[in-house]
Structures are given as C-alpha cells and as structure tokens.
Amino acid sequence: MGYDNLTAVVTEYTDTILQVAQQFKQLLQSTQNQQKQMVDLSIVKKGFDNLTAVVNANTDKIHECKDQQKQLPAGTNKQEKAIPHECADINFIKDGVFLIYPSGAKRPKYAYCVLQDNRKWTVIQRRSGFSLSFWQRWHVYREGFGDANGEHWLGNEYIHAISINGQHRARFILEKDGIKRYADYSNFRVEDEPSKYLLKVFGYSGTAGDSLNGDNSSKIANGQKFSTYEQDNDNYSGNCAQRYRGGWWYNSCYYASLNNHYGHNKIDWGLNMGLKLDKSMLCVIFSCDLCISKSKRGTNHCKHISSGDKKE
Ligand SMILES: [Ca+2]
C-alpha cells in the first residue's frame, strides 16, 4: 500500500469517525432533550397531583358544608335577606296570612298581608263582626291575640319591632254604613315596652280626619303611652282602659279609640263630625315607606303614593 493509498484510507475512516461522532452527538442531544422532557413531564405530573389534592380537599369541604346545611332547620338555610321582617318583604300576589320575622322580636308571627296602592301592608288590627274581645290584659296586648285571618291585634311587641325598622306609614280604614274613609299617617312608630309602647304618629292625609292628633291636647293619642285596664298609663284621673274596656294609647281619654269594647262605647274616630264606627271591617295597616335597611328590603314597593292613587 502506498502513502497515497494509506492517506486515502485514513481520510475515509476519519470522515466515518466524524460522521459517527456527529450522529452520536445528535443522539446525545436527542437523549438529553427527551430526558429534559421527562423532567418537565414529572413537574407537570407533580403539579397535577397537587391540583388534584386541592380539588379533592375542597370537594370534601363542599360535601361537608352540604351535609351541615341539610341538618339546619327548614327555612334557615336561606340568606338573611330572604327572611321577611314584614309583609313588605314578601312576594305575594293575593292578600292573605304569611309568617313574618320582625327584627328584634323573639318569635315569628303570622300576619295578614294586604296589597293596596302598589304597597304591601302588614295588618296590625282588624275588627269586623265584633266577636273578639279587645278587653285584654297588658301581656296579651303585648303578644297579640285573635286570628290573623279575622279579628285580631298583631301585638305591641311586633308593632314596635316593625315600626322602628325604617319609616312606616299607617293607614286606618274606617267604615260606616257602607262608606269607607281612611286616615293615612306618613310616620307611625311605637316605642319599646320599657317606654310603655309610646306612640309617635304624624303626617296625616285622608278623608276620615286626623283623630290621633287634634286641637285638644288632653285627648290626642300621639305621644301617649299604651294602657290596659291593669296598667293605667293615661293622663286621666280614672282609668280610661277600664272605662272603655280596651287597650289603647289613651290620653284623657281620646278622640279616636279603635279598641273600645263593642256594645259599650264601640269604636270612635272622633274629629270627622262625630264619625263613629259601629260595624264592619276595620283595618289598621302600615307598610314600609322609606326603607333604610342594608338589605334593600322592599325598595320596589316603598315609593310614595302618587296623588292619583285611589283608596279603597
Ligand atoms: Ca289614669
């Protein structure tokens, strides 16, 4: 073999070695990439495992919460804003009896709810037929008596609780000889029991006369404490509640008294030329007027009455 031939062989082998080396380098690169990808996959898998653990843990919590929710008494697994404090908070399309939960009251209460003039009213008193005696003791007036479907007094504690939760409007519907009259008060509020359920009422409008106020300061109910026959909080030397057999915000004694005993002095709403009611339906109702609660309760039906609204 000559030198030239030997050089040719070496060159050939050298090229081959270089080619093999290049191939090995590429293979090594490929292997490293695959290894890197495997590492990356392991990171992804680790992350996925963590995520799965988090999801599982939260799923357990969700099931736990659902189980706890099932154990709650009926009606308590709703949001606070869904609890009706008064009729204004209830979505009803027909007048009737509903359970309300006045703020601060110890127990819920059945109340008769009325739709009128685009408002939702809570009935606090109703007298028709006069089969129910309103000659009751203090604690009976406090808790309420009668049937919400018929004659009843909602209860001073509930009237108080409702009336202080935002500004309330009162409507007294009076009827005599088939003719209805009404007295509206834009502000109606009853203080708490330690204040003897003191009445604050003003802003009159209507057709029956402002008989809870008036010119004779010794007879107006506004500003008076509630009295029953065994709790005389009136300004009379005697006992108005005993005399007229009812519980009321007697002064000395009254222009208007809607709880008088039927058959004795009946019902009086006095300023409107001696309007005396001796029969049929009497409702004292009030509704949320300017709601100040954070839950936006009753905002849809707390707008002011327009001048064109027709009274029943
Ligand atoms: Ca007295």
* Total count of strands: 12
Unique bound compounds: calcium ion
Average pLDDT, all residues: 76
CATH architecture of the largest domain: Alpha-Beta Complex
- The ordered H/E elements are HEEEHEEHEEEHEEEE
Largest sheet: 9 strands, antiparallel
Per the CATH scheme, the topology name of the largest domain is Gamma Fibrinogen, Chain A, domain 1
The helical percent reads 25-40%
Q: What would you call the structural class?
A: alpha+beta
Alpha carbon gap, first and last residue: 131 Å
Shape: rod-shaped
Rounded to the nearest angstrom, the radius of gyration is 40 Å
Can you walk through the features of this model?
Strands 1, 2, 3, 4, 5, 6, 7, 8 and 12 form a nine-stranded antiparallel beta sheet that branches. The protein has a three-stranded antiparallel beta sheet with strand order 9-10-11, with no helix packed on it. It folds into two domains: about 80 residues; about 220 residues, Gamma Fibrinogen, chain A, domain 1 (Gamma Fibrinogen, Chain A, domain 1), CATH 3.90.215. It is rod-shaped and about 135 Å long. Helix content is about 30%, strand content about 25%. By secondary structure, the protein is an alpha+beta fold. The structure holds calcium ion. Calcium ion binds next to loops.
Short structural summary:
With 312 residues, the chain is an alpha+beta fold. The protein contains four helices and twelve strands; from the N terminus they run αβββαββαβββαββββ.
Itemize the secondary structure elements and their pairings:
Elements: H1 3-71, E1 96-100, E2 109-116, E3 119-127, H2 138-143, E4 145-146, E5 152-153, H3 156-163, E6 167-176, E7 179-190, E8 199-206, H4 240-244, E9 256-257, E10 267-269, E11 276-277, E12 282-290
Antiparallel strand pairs: 1-2, 2-3, 3-5, 3-12, 4-5, 6-7, 6-12, 7-8, 9-10, 10-11
